[in-house]
Specification:
This protein is mainly alpha-helical and 208 residues long. The chain has helices at residues 2-11, 13-22, 34-55, 64-90, 93-99, 102-113, 121-145, 152-174, 182-203.
């Protein structure tokens, strides 16, 4: 329980810490391109976990297919984080935190469509409430406040939802590499995500 609570507390930090970095309207902070922020995040994580992989020794050799899955997993997560950062640039940190829970809704929907996992009758109402609270109410409220105009704030909300959808897909991808040690998963995922971000930065000539 302590580890789960600590995980929830730490997972909320990117919403708050990244907001002043990517939002040009915040006074006293020089704005940074969202793509650069994501690149530094993944690179720092990859570097941090590289020595930890040596401590968590594994006697089984990692298959090439598992490496490929982890690279795809890292690219998918990077895309999710990039979408989240661009969304965070336009919307509030509070909205981003609420809308990021949309991944729960997408996970259930994908499970129903692809894996034929259906909800029990008593689970339908809770799922509907989660979907309404995590997606429809925040976006609907912003659309109403902006007089049904597609503002940058609403665009930011939609990007957060897109981020949740991609993150949901990446969790299904990661299941195919379940035989790999956790630290190795994070290392390969982070470094491949950082490399993907670097390629995008070079392609779009993003200033560092």
């Amino acid at each position: 329980f302590i580890v789960a609570i600590l995980s929830a507390a730490l997972s909320s930090l990117p919403d708050v810490l990244s907001k002043p970095l990517v939002d040009p309207t915040v006074a006293g902070v020089a704005p940074v391109e969202p793509l650069v922020v994501v690149f530094i995040m993944y690179l720092a994580t990859g570097i941090f976990f590289t020595p930890l992989t040596k401590l968590q020794k594994s006697h089984t050799k990692i298959k090439k297919s598992s490496y490929a899955v982890l690279v795809v997993y890292g690219v998918a997560l990077a895309c999710s984080t990039i979408a989240f950062s661009f969304g965070l640039k336009e919307t509030s940190a509070t909205n981003a935190s609420i809308l990021s829970n949309s991944e729960i809704v997408f996970t259930v929907l994908i499970g129903m469509i692809i894996f034929k996992e259906y909800l029990a009758r008593k689970e339908v109402l809770p799922f509907a409430l989660i979907a309404a609270g995590a997606i429809f109410l925040p976006i609907g409220s912003d659309i109403y406040e902006h007089r049904f105009a597609f503002s940058e704030f609403v665009f930011g909300d939609i990007m957060i939802v897109v981020s949740g959808f991609i993150y949901c897909l990446s969790t299904f991808i990661a299941k195919h590499a379940s035989d790999v040690k956790t630290t190795r998963v994070v290392q390969i995922m982070s470094l491949s995500g950082a490399l993907f971000c670097f390629i995008l930065m070079m392609a779009f000539q993003t200033p560092i």
